[in-house]
Amino acid sequence: MWSYPANLELDTNGTYLVTFPDIPEAASVGDDADEALLNGLDALESAIEIYFDEKRKVPFPSKPRKGQPCVVLPTLVVAKVLLANEMIHQGVRKAELARRLDVHMPQIDRLLDPRHASRIDAMEAAFNKLGRRLEISIV
């Protein structure tokens, strides 16, 4: 589970601002703390898209301070982050992964879209072509 520690600040107009120390590009607001954290997930996913577009590794979440709120990324988004980070680590571009998987580029674009509901078998195949294995566990 990837839980990004969040900072909540009460704004002068009574709304809450949520920011993330690990991903400074992500910020959002809400009428209350719960709404701000919920909107924070959308902000995180948007920031992750920026990292993907700029071919930058997405930072892993740091350990939260005691009592610090966190926003949990959905498992599929975590898998996409790990895939993108592995591609960067290995120097594999999208076109090369498409060639290895024998698929068209739009399919790779969807694999790296945090908002697209990719099939788990497609994610697994992509990791396999990078010499890695996707594992899922229940805690």
From TrEMBL:
A Pfam family the protein falls into: HicB_lk_antitox
Q: Which residues belong to any copy of the HicB-like antitoxin of toxin-antitoxin system domain?
A: 4-63
In its UniProt entry, what is this protein called?
A: Antitoxin HicB
| Organism this protein belongs to | Paraburkholderia unamae
